[in-house]
């Protein structure tokens, strides 16, 4: 038996020698945080790379969600998806907002726009969808509903780094999009994140809010938070950005290998590329139909684990099933059948830049058997 552990992901690391040069420069500058040189450079480079007009860096992918809700003064109820990482819904809780869960579409795992209107009440102020696994939401349909009811749209785009639809960045949709640059993401700054906005005024306000609300040495315009990215992480990000295209290409090759090998395995399904979409291959979820496959998802998951293949059940349990949220009226199983089905059948296979062919083969062989 092969004892090498294959994890679900492995971080994209900058070249250490190159990083050392940046560190020396930071040491010389003696400016290590608070909108420093590399912070500004990374914001510029990311705006260009991501094809977005304005971006503000954060210390992680959770605080831009929390701050976006503050900046847009969202209150009352917000419509969101249960099929995500807990941080999505936690950002609402931290703002005293009631989450209202709406079911997902089986084709993408994203919130189903056709089910949003029925969940709107006089207290609804916004929609918070997630481009789960980096697959684009039906943004036009969501925007039409938002416009009709006067709602804001904040996209949790934590998985959607670099994703484009018909040549346009998905990050320009809605009022605000947020990104995560966590170690496990396609592009990482160790911990880190960002917010994308459409205009300079909002960018300025967000920059105040992530710096305690300071709008000058002696003026505080709002009860802001501290969520500034430091110079060391910004420099790390600048180096990583140079290799992210190659990393995405490596991930794409892995996705092709998985798809070719698993297409004819009875009871195993997966997503194919969507027409017109530039994907980032951030995750490779497969879905197990126990009856056809002859084994349940959990049986396969633990069998893989026994053989040192550490896939992950992202996103199981559903957010709506965690104790904090399960008593909400919208958290019932009857309201969220598609989300339950996906959460109960998913395993994310190992997926990262540089995953070796023999490791892909090992994963595939385990599933085939
Ligand atoms: N919205 C969405 C939709 C999100 O998915 C996330 C985060 C957020 C918001 C919030 O963004 P952040 O505030 O986190 O920036 C991970 C990540 O911690 C989390 O960022 C991510 N989503 C979530 C989906 O996954 P865990 O608890 O599964 O990570 P962990 O530590 O078990 O790592 C998974 C595997 O990655 C390990 O088995 C091995 C590998 N790994 C991990 C780390 C940290 C490494 O090889 N090296 C490392 O340093 O949550």
Detailed description of the structure:
The chain has 369 residues and is of the alpha/beta class. It has 2 domains: 224 residues, Aspartate Aminotransferase, domain 2 (3-Layer(aba) Sandwich); 125 residues, Aspartate Aminotransferase, domain 1 (Alpha-Beta Complex). Helices cover 36% and strands 15% of the residues. The protein is built from 12 helices and 15 strands. Strands 2-10-9-6-5-3-4 form a 7-stranded mixed beta sheet, with helices on both faces. A 3-stranded antiparallel beta sheet has the order 8-7-12, with no helix packed on it. A 3-stranded antiparallel beta sheet has the order 11-13-15. The longest helix is centred in the C-terminal third of the chain and has 19 residues. The chain is globular. The model has no long low-confidence stretch (mean pLDDT 97). Bound molecules: ligand T4K. Ligand T4K binds next to helix 4.
Sketch the topology as an H/E string, one letter per element. EHHEHEHEEHEEEEEHHHEEEHHEHEH
CATH superfamily of the largest domain: Type I PLP-dependent aspartate aminotransferase-like (Major domain)
- Kindly state the percentage of residues in helix: 25-40%
For this structure, the CATH topology of the largest domain is: Aspartate Aminotransferase, domain 2
Number of beta strands: 15
Q: Name the strands of the widest sheet in spatial order.
A: 2-10-9-6-5-3-4
**Range of strand content:** 5-15%
CA-atom Rg in angstroms: 21 Å
Oligomeric state of the chains in view = single chain
CA(first)-CA(last) distance: 14 Å
* Ligand set: ligand T4K
